[in-house]
């Protein structure tokens, strides 16, 4: 401002400062919104909740169930201090966040970190790069994610519109499961016996099961809408073991996003969503308030041989009246209409629904699917049995337990985190890098199973050089029973280039791959008795977990790890761990 400013009259100085502020403040404001750091404090604590007429103490964040919503914009930095006040070891995973060069914050216990022990804390620190939409966070150790979960809402950058109708209101809808029993006791008992764990007692919508016989109706989620308005429903399947159909009676839903990637909009009465997946839908309320209440319902899609929780979670869609009369709920006076669902095992519906999900693949939102491939992998996913040790008393035939495997390898969790062992070159005795690229022996994967269904075990990983273009075919098997498996890959989105029934044909099927507008997701359902093919670019250095998002199958070993090496440039290398990284 110099000496000329010092000799100005007072009012001129004031005018000059106002002009200066008008000119410079928008720049400062823009800079501020270019990247905001958003701070959260998550206290892991026990809290009493009553569901199904029964009160129990559950693990929560800040005493909330479901847990608090994280809201950020694309490009923001998110810093979450997690303090563990409960008896269990805890780790949290930010499901679907790419974690570009921030793998230490990914969260799966014994993969990227040792868990946070009782009385300890850890700060998760990451930046959301090139993503916008709905994701979610959940516990990633044992079965604690039964109650430890919540939404992540990533808004577009400021002044950037959605590529669809701007909604009047946005509503997160999280599907879950509820056990009357303590779920840690449920999985511990199953681990000891080697048999399947006990089923959940109810499914929930935003933590509420809906009207259950003899239980108070206050356990019901209600969505009140204004006639003619458009609502964005952010659907999240946080259930432990069930893929879910979701529907609202007498209303169509328009799918506009899946796993925080915009898709070509399509209309449907029913959404199919696997555990781990997120789907954004537009709900357009009817132009006039109907004289009815509409059930918002979620029930399982189940293809496996085992029993499943066959309950339906129910909420209510109610229309707001324009009159000034009482605002009390009209559910008792108005008829309740319910949606019609497919059969619980309708795999044709599932295949058709997943085929409708396509990337926008336009100039603003391109589908960067790898057109060529450096490495091809063929992984069988399914069940088997493993031999228990002599001092165990497993209740399977000849002291065996049910197991699950990828390429016949059931994954053994290490005692220290794989990422630490990899980063500090201390892999000896922790993991090996000989995970098979193909099944150890070929058989008719979806036909009659082989006589020997024993699985091998080990802590094995695949090593990929930086920027490897990967094609991975995931093949379901009929061992014990064909079943849909929602496979989740940490650290990446992948493109679903093909899927089909029966056994994958490496000669014929690749000719039909969609390399133009395939769905881009972080979790894909491997069809029951079928296969799915995905491609991804290994552009994120670190150790990345891949596992079935049916928690029972993860517990049984249906998991493995990818190790992506550093690139040559500085911005292609994983930085050192934070100083507060938990110790084992």
Automatic annotation (TrEMBL):
Q: Which CDD domains does this chain map to?
A: CuRO_1_LCC_plant, CuRO_2_LCC_plant, CuRO_3_LCC_plant
Q: What class of enzyme is it?
A: oxidoreductase
Where in or outside the cell is it found? Secreted, Extracellular space, Apoplast
Keywords in alphabetical order, please. Apoplast, Copper, Glycoprotein, Lignin degradation, Metal-binding, Oxidoreductase, Repeat, Secreted, Signal
- Annotated GO MF terms: copper ion binding; hydroquinone:oxygen oxidoreductase activity
Q: How is the cofactor bound?
A: Binds 4 Cu cations per monomer.
Q: Where is the Plastocyanin-like domain?
A: 44-157, 170-321, 435-567
Catalytic activity reads: 4 hydroquinone + O2 = 4 benzosemiquinone + 2 H2O
Point out the signal peptide segment. Answer: 1-31
User: Per the UniProt entry, what is one GO biological process?
Assistant: lignin catabolic process
GO annotations of cellular component type? apoplast
PROSITE patterns, A to Z: MULTICOPPER_OXIDASE1, MULTICOPPER_OXIDASE2
Swiss-Prot/TrEMBL cofactor(s): Cu cation
DNA repair keyword on record:
no
EC number(s) per UniProt? 1.10.3.2
What does the UniProt function comment say about this protein? Answer: Lignin degradation and detoxification of lignin-derived products.
Hey, which family's this protein in? Belongs to the multicopper oxidase family.
Q: What is this protein called?
A: Laccase
Organism, as annotated: Vigna radiata var. radiata
Q: What is the lineage of its organism?
A: Eukaryota, Viridiplantae, Streptophyta, Embryophyta, Tracheophyta
